[in-house]
Amino acid sequence: MNVAVTGSSGFIGSHLLPKLKKEGHTVTEISRTRNLDITNWEKVKDLKPCEIIVHLAAKTFVPDSFNNPAEFYKTNYIATLHSLELARKWNARVIYMSSYFYGPPQYLPVDEKHILNPHNPYAQSKMQSEQLCGAYFRDFGIQCISFRLFNIYGKGQTGYFLIPEILEKIKNGGTVTLADPRPKRDFIHVNDAVNAIILATNKLNIGFEVFNLGTGVATSVEELVSIIYDRSPIKFKVKFTNKYRKGEILESIACIDKIRNNLNWNPKIDIKKGIEYLF
Length: 279
Fold this sequence. Notes:
Distance between the termini: 35 Å
Number of helices: 10
Structural class: alpha/beta
CATH superfamily: NAD(P)-binding Rossmann-like Domain
Strand order of the largest sheet: 2-1-3-4-5-10
CATH architecture: 3-Layer(aba) Sandwich
């Protein structure tokens, strides 16, 4: 099939493209690095039609969403709107990489029926974009799978995300200083996320469906540091300041029953193996 990937040069996109090509798909890369900005309709409106659009492009770093909320709302919503407009024009299916926007869990593990309670501008922008996907299915029959992604990690991830931040501090030597050791997160390796996307490309007549994308296992910051320490060739010291972030979610775990039952997907890389792959 012909598959268009927005954000193709990003973290997930760089892992996804080789897998799609290995599966025999022809890939159209939509990325600013290729002068194809999905938020600029004039740049993308005349692209060759594709049967599937994998929409990954987004601004993602949560702290920045508080500093520049307008840019997050505009970029993430318009990018999704234009992806859906291309899908409407091409009669294509959409695979949308959504996010965690359940807020502090009322129960664990969190399933897709949990109340939605976005607690930052980034999460709000992703929820609104997912709702737009639902509206395009309702009004135009655009079929869409939306993955509510928990905490992704893997080789090539950059920026101020927890795992690459720890690894960068280790490389620079000295003591690794972190804040709160308590929060527990459901970490999913990028290869498992990519495998879910590959399975979704083969799913026909699904309508509009949302799936949690996690592992069903939570790891605390303290446990994560211990796992990294045991596998790192560079030994390091760790200091926790015990600075607690206001409104911090202390634990999140994905219920993945729905994606198991509907896409026959299971995570294959646990956190220990995933951290080994980083060294």
